[in-house]
Amino acid sequence: MVEIAVKKGNATAKIINEKKLEKSKNKSQHGSVASYFMIMPQFLGFLLFAIYPIIWVIRFAWFEFDGVTAHFNGIDNFIRLFTRDADYWLSLANTFILTFGKLAIELPLALLLAVVLNSKLKGKAFFRTMFYMPNVIGIAIIGLIFYFMFASFDGIVNNILLQFSIIKTPVNWFENKWTALVVIAIASIWQNFGINMLFFLSGLQSISKDLYECAEIDGASKIKQFFHITIPMLAPIMQIVTMLAIIGTIKMTDLVLVLTNGQPAGQSEVVMTYIFKYFFSTGEGTQVPQIGYASSMGLVTAIVVGLMTIAYLKTTKKMSSID
Amino acid sequence: MELIKKYGMNFIIYIFLMIILVITIFPILYTFFASFKSNQEILTAGTNIIPKKFTFENYKQAWLLADFKRYTFNSIYMTASIVIGTIITSSMAGYAFSRGEFKGKKIIFAAFTATMFVSLGSITLYPLVEIAKFLHINTNLWGVIIIKVFGLNIMNIYLVRSFLDTVPREIDEAATIDGCNFFRIYYEIILPLIKPIIATIGLITFRDAWNDYLMPLVFTLSNPQQSPLIVGVVSLRSSGAAASSWNLMLAGTMLSIVPMLTIYLSLNRYFVQGLTSGAVKG
What we know:
Chain A is mainly alpha-helical. Chain A contains 12 helices and 2 strands; from the N terminus they run αββααααααααααα.
């Protein structure tokens, strides 16, 4: 009896297993068709809005194209770019000056705030919320706000500086290349220090408390702990955050368009706004869009940024693993 | 002695934090108060930040005369469409990449990820307009909406996928045995489960769509009536009568940042979650 029951049991188990197998087979076939449908929207977007535009730019970099007629002109665009267009290189130089000048303040500030707010401090949630706040405001609007504040005649910054007798006459911030760049940097730091602080904070929270306890027992001071535990343990996150910040600054477009629009006379132009103006003919002296030439500038810039990223990752390779 | 030392240290820290806090909120407060000043007062206020006489005239003028009513409407429908569309496309794709088994899954995912590294920023704006021209959506906000919704949102896909990887598979296996198909599982079981991550994606998408400037600008260059709020406000700056419309610009600026700040301050938990989990791990 028992034997039969077991056999029966086995048989039913077998049948159930087989059924299950069939079902799971069905599922995977079913699932695969459905999966294709479900990634289809993003796949179409990937082809149309990510891949095609890149190919388009690469192609038209070799053309002269004003938006209506296009003809192939070989490497002429590149010859023009490398030999006759000093303004492009000026804008690229501005971009790098801005990047390094800005990050030299932004990242240490973000790190310092993260360390401070990672301790047991009253009201730290409040400070964290507030410091990240500028990041939710649109960058174009930030450009507008700083344009108000640094207005040459009755801007609040000039008025405050006059009040405290730091300056004697109002500064025309946008009439000098360097002060214009300083205003751009301030606006950009104001927007971004909060997000970098949050990145650092999430890195700090992943450091094990035991390390600090051990150091404490060994008698290491807080400052020593910072340089010998915090900094090395944060290295991988620092590498990523710095890279994101560099790439983000190189791609800066909206802020400069709104804040200085290249004033004075294109001196504060960054590389992206410079190229933008050739694409959409909104700048000075480019009444006819020069889309082909803009494409070649875009291509060269993309290659420069790409090479820089690779070089950066190579030189900071040590940072990505904690020893 | 020890106590005083500790207290002193905290004191210095608080002073430092307060200085940064003032720098952080000053531009916002300044704009806020200035938006209630008459144009006369804006231009002659000196260091007075709080207006002598509060006036709502700027908002009234901006709303009725300077077309901000239309801009606000445009912003709302553009942002709402992008948020809803993006939630659908990225949650579906994230689900398919987490649970689906299909040929080429790995390759497609790797290709999607690679786009993060070769993005050319505003350089590809022109070809995007060209594509939109081809699809006849190049002179209104639908072009922006379609590009944003269908355009690859790899960070969102990452967020959904990694969230789903923490949801036990038994749940959808049980549903499969009950006869649910792959899509119904997504629709009836997974979607309600991943609400927290959808909230995060929704908020981040909302922020980006509401704040976007360059793409809506390019798509509404020939059709300013379609401009969203930010494009409308900024266009006042470059118009010839910039100095006489400062009050309108200030009111418009406030109109465009107040909704954002309100949402941020009430839901900031979700913002921070999405940022830290998405950007650092992804």
